[in-house]
Amino acid sequence: MIEQLPFHPVISEWFAESFGKPTDVQREAWQSIGEGRHTLIAAPTGSGKTLAALLPCLDALVREKIRSDLPSGVKILYITPLKALNNDIHHHALGFAEQLDARAAGNGGEWPGIRCEVRTGDTSPSKRAAILRRPPDLLVTTPESLFLLLTSEKGRKILENVDHVIVDEIHDLAADKRGAHLSLTLERLAYRNTKPIQRIGVSATQKPLERVARFLGGWEAAGMDEDGGAASQPRPVTIVESAMSKQMDVSITMPDLNVPAASREAVWLPLLDRIVQAMEGCRSVLLFVNSRRLCERLCLRLNDHFGYELARSHHGSMSRERRLEVEQLLKEGSLRCIVATSSLELGIDVGHIDLVIQIDSPQEAARGIQRIGRAGHAVGEASRGILLARQKSLLPELAVLGRQIARREIEVIRIPLAPMDVLSQQIVAMTAMDDWDITVLHRLIRCSDSYSRYPIELLESVLQVLAGFYPFAKPLLDWDRMENRLSKRSNTAMAAVTGVGTIPQSGNYPVHHLDSRVHLGELDEEFIQESRVGDVFQLGTSSWMIRDIRNDRVYVSEAGNRFSEIPFWRNEAGSRPFVLGEKIGALLRELSERLVLDEEHEKESAQETESNERACEWLGVNYNMDRLSAGELVALLRSQHRSCGLPTDNRIVIEHYRDVMNQTHVIIHNHCGRTVNRAWLLAIERQFEQLLPYRLYGNAKDNGIEFVLPEWDASWLQLFNQVTPSNIEQLLTEAITGSPLLGIAFRRIAENGLLLSRSFTRTPLWQKRLRSEELLRGALPYAAHFPYLREAMKECLQDYLRIDELKTFLDRLVSGEIAVVVRETPYPSPFAANFIADYVNMKLYEGDGLDETTRLQLLNISKELASRLFGGNALGNAIDREVVEEERRKLEETDRPPANADGLASLLKTRGDMTANEISRLAGEQALMWLRQLQERNKAIALDLAGDGEFRWISADEREIYEGFPESPESLIFVLGRYADRVISFTEDELCDRYPSLSLAAAKLAIEELLNKGMIERAPHAANEEERLWTSVKVASRLVRLSIRQARHRIEPADAARWCGQIATMQHAWQGTQLQGSDGLRVVLERLQGLFLPLSHWETIVLPTRLKPYRKEDLDLLCASGDVFWIGRKEEGEKEGKIAFFLADSKVLYAPFIKDATAQTSKHPDLLKRIEAGGASFLTRLSRETGQAPSELLGDLMDLVWEGTISNDQFAPLRVQVAGKQAQWARTGSGLGRWYATGALLSEGDNLDVSSGQSTDPDSRAESPVLEWTHHLLKVYGLINKDLVANTAPYSWERFYPALKRLEEWGVLTRGTFIRGMASLQFTTRELGDAVRQPPLAADSAITVLSSADPANPFGVLSDWPQPSRGESFTRKPGSFLALTGSRWVFWIENNCKRVYSFPGENAESAMDSRPSESNAVTLQEQADLLLSTIRAVIQSRKLVKVKIDRWNGEPVFGTDIGKLLLQMGAERDMNSLVFWSN
């Protein structure tokens, strides 16, 4: 017999035929809903909760349609958190409706029919329009789509008669800001509706039920409170909880990792084998993973392992169409397995599932229940799931979660309280539709459970920002304070519809098919930045080739079976809940007791084996762990205990050890979870900042915290104890301001709160960050009053750091409830090993990354030092006078004069107080009429600020600020900060003139306060550092930026040959600039300091080119005097060692080389120690002390020379090394100088970090190694680029670049392309940039011949060689030469003149064409004369008797015109060659 149901006969018969008897939860829910009560349904998956909520609503709809002609509109709203779940519910609802129609048609009774539609972000515009024209009875939608419907006239019209709202998976919405957003949306819906709306919530995992019920129902008026205000109370909600117990069969396992992997691919085999074993006998399997990248990788590996498409991937970065296709394939039985992320977690029907496998931890029991609940979805059927750990370290967490899932023990939901950004978004949307009295608005807001205690004062502070009170925040609505009403502006509606929702907008690139333009999914912005056209990647089990990368999308095409890269998606890893960590600690404590780990005596092997077996058996019975996983867990705990101790719920273990680099790793082992550990880490780091002059490395994970320090003192452990419950909030507040957390929180709040405008297209993340940073900088001076900044701080502490949970933990720690064990270990414990990979990755990919400001501070970059090095005049050229005048004009005028009264109101807000004359000058005569209009509308008022009867006009909302000026600090910051933004610069006297109520002393104090707030700085165009001329930081930034741009625009690149001439002149290698004598030699060596050149080049190429004449005795005397010394270096694989010279007083230049050399392991440590201890020693003394023959000992000494650890006070020993004659070595004796350790040149106080180029002595601010090296390289080469730094400097380009940028901002350097054809970034001084482009002087017959190996040759170091076109072999070899005259490169000579190429053109590129250009044409005779001069120079420099020319421009020289002319001029013929003799 069919059970009588309380529904229309058609519905009752259909249900009985389709489902049989109702479940207990269905009966209770139908009664509650039928009686019109708000109802919360809590029932496990497979208990029929969807029909428990939906069926009575459909019955009421049908009965009412039969009774009367209902007005058009939606009657039932079904809200779900996911678009995919919407589609699933809509599919089921359509099926129900069709079956009911068929049943009614068969019975022949009256049946009005039920129309269903779905409306999400994926719904097409035509479908949306159709819904508005002909509204359905049942609308399935998301919170965001409902918000949009209420924010349009037609949309809210079809929602005026809603009777029922069903919120599915309410636990998922309530737990974050989307819930608060929906709560306010429901109150807006109820406010507009003609009758009360019944609310129904549905979920399988919600706790506590009473709290979720209050969230669902909201609040209602309840008379008056004690203070005479409106009181409120929660709306009554009936809770229907299922008595049916859903059986969850959960087991825990892991792959057998004991088999060593033979290759990189083989590491996957144990995991794949274990999955295959688990899937045996299963027709359909869901495999859940925690990341999209792992989803794609595992899917690919599974299919490769099976040899056919066993599995398909399913995640949020795939398009909706492809996800639906995968779901349908599984339903039909065409697909055996889906590898999914959380995209399939919530209630989506994919047909019958035999098994769910969760790879690694689901991190929460509720999430695990949702996922495993996908299996056995039918009523009364058990759900079977496996938790599969890829690593042993995850086993404790999986054991606890597996037990919780099996017992359905879910976590308490944390419902966010009063998020300000959500409220801002809703207020803007509401104002876009209607004008609002603020009292009424406040009453509506407080009906939402999330805002039930929201104070009116806080609401007004939010409205103040939205109404544009702060000049840096764009107004989104108008607030009439006299009438206390809100009204919309022209931009209100657009801001509301573009900024909908709280889901953070990603910078991901949409992926579209090149031909069909079908949307396939999306890829991470960073992944696309690292990809190129032609790259192949995998998405959704298919391989795609990138064909086009555009600003807002990527086009791809199929790539067949080619190798494909697995994309990555950047996302922060989830955190273990604190409560779960406590349970893990309790499990480990119990296991420790069962394994008798804390007993002092060593147990016999047999006893240990027996206790292991009992523990494994206990884990199998109580935690459903298989034998392998239980055994691995027991082995892990024993190993950890032996290493340093086992952390539990009542004990933390602090382990410290030294690694191979002598760095100390300190690990605090605990189970608090990543979020709480990150908070504790920040607080401890804050303590260390007060102790150490550098920032230490710290990393927080679920299982503890790691610090890495270059030095360690055990007493520093006391710093951990100094973080207590009483000071934790202060420490974290201070730490947050210096961490990225505040910037991230503020950006998200500003985006959601519409302070940062959104758009319908993709916005790159870097643009969002820049806009957010600008807004944050504007807000920081008003930090005490700007509500969104306070909200960001609160969100950091409560949500990102969970300060309350950390306080609970610290309370237990301070009280002694949690013990602390400290252990020093020789190597990392098993638990500590989990941190090693993170530290290695940081070193590989992040290095010692610091923000640019910090780097500049550490590099000692200061204007004073730059002025000393480059001269005060260089810094005075930073700001272009034309830029200053142009910016002054822009500030005094306005680019967009107001067109109406509202435009004038905006002008008043941005420019501040102005007289009527000032306003007329900016906005025209009609401005006075607009002023009267604004005054009548209470939007502008006039004040007599100067007391002279001339009124200033201000925005009406600023009355209180100006009334408090100048006594109130807030008014000073507001009024003077805005004044600074609209003038080019100002002095204290000018402030007093503008604001007579301000005394000179008060003006000086105000300047100091604005400086402290970072709102102003000394004007960059001030005459000097003493002039008290001030500029807004915004104006100063524009002046610097525009001046830099102006300087760059003036630059025209010059040919590399011109730079060669310039560099040769600077190095005294240009003909006519050579020096003489020992003083000249000292100048040359000073200029070439730090250039490591091959030993043989110094006295054959470098010095003879620059000194006329060069005498070796002068070099020996300079070295012997101690004024100059040399250091050697020889890299592995080099045939010849290199030598660099330094002046003794240039410690900042040579110190990094010596530091680096002395840090390396020596080949002859005993000999080096002897020299270090004995001081400078002659060879004979060393030979006598070591017992080695001088000839033997010299070989060892040269090894030390090439290590850079010793030197000699003469150059003669190296000269002998060049000669290479063993006999001379034997005769060196004691006459070739004394040997000494280069380390002696550094004193103990020389604290220099070689890798970073910074002084580690906090008191050493007199010099900056990087700045000194910048100045030196500019003197040597005239410009700097990345290649030059890599070839010559002891520091990396990453260390140089911030200093170069800052010098450019100060006007010392200019950045651009100075060498034609070179695209690399180059820096030079403005003077050199101008000088090198000057027209060459009158033609000079003198020719300069440079060896291609000479440091004055920029080719191959600063610039690329020209492309050869006639067989040239461009290289830096001693036998090749460049011949230059004036600004021209005239000849390239190879192999000591055997091959000669002429360059008659102005530059090297044009010179590749052997035909002379008209402007630079030379006669054959002139060319022959130049060549003869060049040949003489080569013969002289190489000390040759003769040279022979074989080829000219690639042709045999004898047959050329110039060859014939040279014969006439004295050359001799030798076959087809020409010979030139030295005489």
Describe it.
The chain is an alpha/beta fold and 1479 residues long. The protein has seven domains: 9-241, Rossmann fold (3-Layer(aba) Sandwich); 248-407, Rossmann fold (3-Layer(aba) Sandwich), CATH 3.40.50.300; 509-558, no CATH class; 578-746 and 795-847, no CATH class; 878-1045, no CATH class; 1160-1249, no CATH class; 1361-1477. The chain is 45% helix and 16% strand. It is built from 60 helices and 53 strands. Strands 3-4-2-5-6-1-9 form a seven-stranded parallel beta sheet, with helices on both faces. The protein has a six-stranded parallel beta sheet with strand order 10-15-14-11-13-12, sandwiched between helices. Helix 24 packs across helix 26. The chain is globular and about 125 Å long. Mean pLDDT is 84; it is low at 844-860, 1225-1230, 1247-1262 and 1402-1416. One of its GO terms (molecular function) is ATP hydrolysis activity.
Briefly say what this structure is.
Helix content is 45%, strand content 16%. The chain has 1479 residues and is of the alpha/beta class. It is globular and about 125 Å long.
Alpha carbon gyration radius: 40 Å
Strand % is 15-25%
Number of extended strands: 53
The low-pLDDT segments are 844-860, 1225-1230, 1247-1262, 1402-1416
Largest beta sheet, briefly?
7 strands, parallel
Which fold name fills CATH's third level, the topology of the largest domain? Rossmann fold
Output the CATH homologous superfamily of the largest domain: P-loop containing nucleotide triphosphate hydrolases
Mean pLDDT: 84
- Described by the principal axes of the CA atoms, the overall outline is globular
* Terminal-residue CA separation: 130 Å
* Helix-strand category: alpha/beta
Widest beta sheet: strand line-up: 3-4-2-5-6-1-9
The DSSP helix count reads: 60
